[in-house]
Specification:
Distance between the termini: 15 Å
Strand order of the largest sheet: 2-3-1-4-5
CATH class: Alpha Beta
Number of helices: 9
Number of domains: 1
Helix content: 55-70%
Largest sheet: 5 strands, parallel
Mean pLDDT: 93
CATH architecture: 3-Layer(aba) Sandwich
Strand content: 5-15%
CATH topology: Rossmann fold
Radius of gyration: 16 Å
Shape: globular
Number of strands: 5
Bound molecules: adenosine monophosphate
Length: 196
C-alpha cells in the first residue's frame, strides 16, 4: 500500500503514520525526521537543510526529491510506504507520480492521499504542547506561524491535485489518536472494497 499523508504541521500525520506503519508492516518515511537525523549527525545533507528548517522554510525541491526517490527504492519499500511530510509542493507530487507511474497501468500509483483536517485553534494547541515536549528548534511561535503560511501557500494546493487524481481521502483530524486512527481504517477499508 502506498500512502501519502497531507495536512498542516501539528495535524497528527506523524502519530497516525507510525500506527499505520506498524499495523500494515510498511515503512514510515518522514522527511522531517530524516532531515533532523541528518542535522544531528552533521552530514552534508543536514548542513544544507538546517538553515531552511530553522526558518520554517521548505528545503529546495531538488534536495528533497532526490532524497525521497532514493529512500523509496530501498528494498523495504517494495510492498509500499507511508510518506509523511512529502510531497509538500506540486513539483514534489509530480516527481513522485513520474517515478511511480507505469504507462501500462492506468490507475493512480498511490492508494490514497489522506488529508488531515483540523481547526487552527487545535493546531496551535498541539504545536505548543509539542514545543514543550520535544524542544524542536522550529516549534518557536514565530517559526510555527511561518510554517503554517508556507503550508497554505505551497502544500495546500496538493489537496486539489490529489482530488483531481481521485485518490484524496479527507480525514477529520479532531479528537483522540484512537478516534482518528479508526476513521482512517474505516476510510481505507471503504476504498479497498469500492475498488473491489
Ligand atoms: P516536518 O517534521 O515534516 O514538519 O518537517 C520539518 C522541516 O523539514 C520543514 O519545516 C522543512 O523545512 C523540512 N521538510 C520536511 N519535509 C519537506 C519537504 N517535503 N519539502 C521541503 N522541506 C521539507
Amino acid at each position: 500500500m502506498r500512502l501519502v499523508l497531507l495536512g498542516p504541521p501539528g495535524a497528527g500525520k506523524g502519530t497516525q503514520a507510525a500506527l499505520l506503519s506498524r499495523e500494515r508492516s510498511i515503512p514510515h518515511v518522514a522527511t522531517g525526521d530524516i532531515f533532523r537525523s541528518n542535522v544531528r549527525e552533521g552530514t552534508e545533507l543536514g548542513q544544507r537543510a538546517k538553515e531552511y528548517m530553522d526558518r520554517g522554510d521548505l528545503v529546495p525541491d531538488e534536495v528533497v526529491i532526490a532524497m525521497v526517490m532514493d529512500r523509496i527504492t530501498e528494498p523495504d519499500c517494495g510492498d509500499g510506504f507511508i510518506l509523511d511530510g512529502f510531497p509538500r509542493t506540486v513539483a514534489q507530487a509530480e516527481a513522485l507520480d513520474k517515478r511511480l507511474r507505469k504507462p501500462s497501468v492506468p490507475q493512480d500509483p498511490l492508494d490514497a492521499a489522506l488529508n488531515f483536517e483540523i481547526t487552527e485553534d487545535e493546531l496551535f494547541r498541539r504545536l505548543v504542547t509539542r514545543a514543550e515536549q520535544e524542544h524542536r528548534s522550529d516549534d518557536a511561535e514565530d517559526v510555527v506561524r511561518h510554517r503554517l503560511e508556507v503550508y497554505h501557500a505551497n502544500t495546500k494546493p496538493l489537496v486539489d491535485y490529489y482530488d483531481r487524481h481521485g485518490v484524496l481521502v479527507v480525514v477529520d483530524g479532531m479528537g483522540t489518536i484512537e478516534e482518528v486512527h479508526e476513521r482512517i481504517q474505516a476510510s481505507l477499508a471503504e476504498r479497498a472494497s469500492a475498488a473491489g
